[in-house]
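Title: Request for sanity check on Rod shape-determining protein MreD prediction

Description:
We are preparing a figure and want to confirm that the structure record we downloaded matches what your pipeline produces today. Could someone re-run it with the sequence below and paste the raw structure tokens into this thread? We only need the token string, no images.
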Amino acid sequence: MIDPLTRRRLGYRTLFIGIGFALIFVRLLPLSHTPGALPGPDLMLALTLAWVLRRPEYVPALLIVIVFLLEDILFWRPIGLWTLIVLGATEFLRARETALRDLPFALEWALVAVLLVVMMSLKRFMLMIVMVDQPALGLELFRMLMTLAAYPVVVMVSRVAFGLRRAAPGEVDAFGHRL
């Protein structure tokens, strides 16, 4: 029999993978044939950042690598570059999770904004070094702004629909370990 803590962790990890595959599937659907459409938000990135800031144990590094590497392969991006950048950003947040636990949402949103700018700049710099064609800067900035605008919605849906919340200071699990 599985203890409730392990069941909850496995449930959220399965949910993360399921949402990731569903978002990839929806992005692969030929819903619009209009060229030159504006890019939408990167919901998987917003979801990953929100979940790592709330419950980092639900989103281990291996799951992040699996989902984002699959995105790199399926969407014809330089394989591993965006995955490595996202992994670095999530590990940066994971290392500071206890310090960021009491952060008000406005400051969390600002932190995510700064992180998105750093991630996009790092990606563009790396692609510039190896002289790979890059998307237009305006389109990437718009996608980053759309992702930032979608972040509060992703946080709210994660809280309301999935019951994902931050660990309270001093909260313990079923075994008495501090979260």
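Thanks, this matches our download. The helical segments are 4-28, 43-54, 61-74, 81-95, 97-100, 105-129, 137-160.
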